[in-house]
Amino acid sequence: MAIIYEAALKQTIKADNTNVYILLGNDGYLKQMYAKKIGSACADDDDTFNFHKFSSECDLQDVYDAVLQFPMMCDKKFVVLTDYDFEGCSKADYEKLCTIIAETPDTCVFVMVFDALQITVKKNNKLTKLITAAEKNNGVAVCLDHRTLPELVKMLTNGASKRGCRFDSTAAKYLIETVGEDIN
Q: Residue 34 class from Cβ within 10 Å (0-12 exposed, 13-18 middle, 19+ buried)?
């Protein structure tokens, strides 16, 4: 079981050959941003044929059906499952989720995002089984935690530079210490 981080995720998205993404971690903004970035390569949010979003209360058979449907007028479908409690679901539902991950075809990108539901990565056998199924089907598990102070300073100074402004790193550090490290 291997979990990648943000830098490796950027390379994986560029390669555009991954079928399954499991997005974990404590930074909700990064998880939503990368889920949108992955999805925008496949289908628009308003594409009723190729974009499907499911919440935690969904029926997994509907998710399975959406994943296996062929895309219409594009190369890939995009299916997102948000905050599904695989630790508290029935054994049949858990096995169905493993089947969805294992059988996601090349014509679909399936993303599981754990936004409000916090998942413990260490010593979690059910998560390990999901990640193993994803890896066997050309998938990845990604841990997106809050960025560190130096990463945030670099993000702010580079962002200002791209906009033709200058933002001193000392001022950026002060801003982060005052406002906090959460990008939201």
A: buried
